[in-house]
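Field reference: sequence -> structure
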Amino acid sequence: MTKGTPSMGKHSGKKSHMYCRRCGKHSYHIKKKKCASCGYGATPKQRTYSWLKK
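Structure field:
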């Protein structure tokens, strides 16, 4: 297989993220089985930080 632009076309069909069942955002990682936004799949608690709040 060659490097560069021709091989980049083979990456297009793979999805890494889908919609989360808990928060509804498009941040649930299919392979990791974890949501980057709310933490669904990793923890039963909602993912929040003090610096996240306005």
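Note: The chain has one helix and three strands.
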